[in-house]
Design goal:
Helices cover 32% and strands 32% of the residues. It has helices spanning 43-51, 72-78, 94-104, 112-122, 138-150, 168-184, 196-202, 240-244, 268-281; strands at 3-14, 17-28, 32-36, 58-63, 66-67, 79-82, 156-160, 188-193, 205-210, 213-219, 225-232, 249-255, 258-264, 286-291. It has 295 residues and is α/β, with parallel strands linked by helices. It has 2 domains: 3-219, 3-Layer(aba) Sandwich (Rossmann fold); 225-292, 2-Layer Sandwich (Alpha-Beta Plaits). A hairpin with a 2-residue loop joins β12 (249-255) and β13. The chain contains 9 helices and 14 strands. A 6-stranded mixed sheet has the order 6-7-8-3-9-10, sandwiched between helices.
């Protein structure tokens, strides 16, 4: 498997203040990697250096073999980037905006309409495609931001705090969009976040940064997780947040009356009882519970 991203002893100074201190890591092609750390740890600075929006002070950065300083234009063609504040135009409709961005990013005029249709469907914007972006909720605006980042079908997708500022339901929905991207359009993904649960829910590996240094690297094993599919007597959206607060529950998602819960296999029976009790307390009746394959 080839190397998608390689950083060697990267340092970044703002004046005399060192933001990044000899940061080194590799990301293989096709990996989904979480870049985890507290606010102010250096996550966004690292993402901006990789994407070419900022240059490092010292060290070397390569993206699919391209040097990030000498080959900035080549790198920008193969990267999709969602900054913490998506670059949206509120006066345009979703479709108008994606057409505009797609053409700027090199999608041919002959293919742009089909590509916009594909992306709108992929990120769940079909019912909102003719809405003005300024009239959308923050969750839907974030979907538009993700859509613009993949309109040109990049090899590498970098998402900087993609769920920050969203409510619990919007967070779950955006995570589902990211998972769908990983499944349907195979690409390398880096997810920068300060939320451990987000990394657990989406990523295969986590790089942990603190005070500008990589302090740990963790391979996330999915063998210790069990997935349950639960059919309920009414729409499941209202119970998702309370289930996610249970210690040992890794992820919760829903569609209509169907609930998907991923829990630790080390406490399988105990957690299953806690989840079911929480459902009953919320007025939900589990009609069918199916233990799926290990998540």
């Amino acid at each position: 498997m080839s190397v998608a991203i390689k950083l060697v002893d990267v340092e970044k100074y703002f004046g005399d203040f060192k933001v990044l201190d000899k940061v080194s890591f590799e990301v293989k092609e096709g990996e989904i990697v979480g870049f985890l750390g507290p606010n102010g740890a250096g996550k966004t600075t690292t993402m901006r250096i990789i994407t070419g929006f900022m240059e490092q002070t010292y060290g070397k950065v390569e993206v699919f073999g391209y040097d990030n300083i000498e080959n900035q234009m080549e790198i920008k063609k193969i990267i999709g980037y969602l900054p913490e504040q998506p670059p949206l135009y509120p006066e345009l409709s979703v479709r108008e905006y994606l057409n505009f961005v797609g053409l700027i990013k090199g999608v041919s005029p002959e293919k742009i309409n089909n590509r916009v249709d594909e992306i709108i469907d992929l990120v769940g914007l079909k019912d909102k495609s003719d809405f003005l972006i300024g009239h959308l909720s923050k969750g839907y605006k974030q979907r538009v931001g993700i859509a613009q980042s993949i309109i040109h079908n990049p090899n590498l997708l970098i998402l900087d705090e993609p769920t920050v500022g969203l409510d619990p339901i919007q967070i779950i929905e955006v995570r589902e969009v990211i998972k769908q991207l990983a499944k349907t359009e195979k690409r390398t993904i880096i997810l920068s976040t300060h939320i451990l649960q987000e990394v657990n829910a989406i990523c295969e590996r986590a790089l942990i940064i603190n005070k500008g240094k990589i302090v740990n690297e963790v391979t996330l094993s999915f063998e210790d997780k069990v997935e349950y599919l639960i059919s309920l007597n009414k729409p499941a959206s209202d119970v998702v947040y309370s289930l996610k607060e249970i210690d040992g529950v890794f992820d919760v998602s829903y569609e209509g009356n169907s609930l998907r819960v991923i829990i630790s296999s080390l406490k399988d029976s105990e957690l299953r009882e806690v989840v079911i009790r929480k459902l009953f307390e919320g007025g939900f009746l589990p009609l069918e519970i199916t233990k799926a394959s290990t998540a």
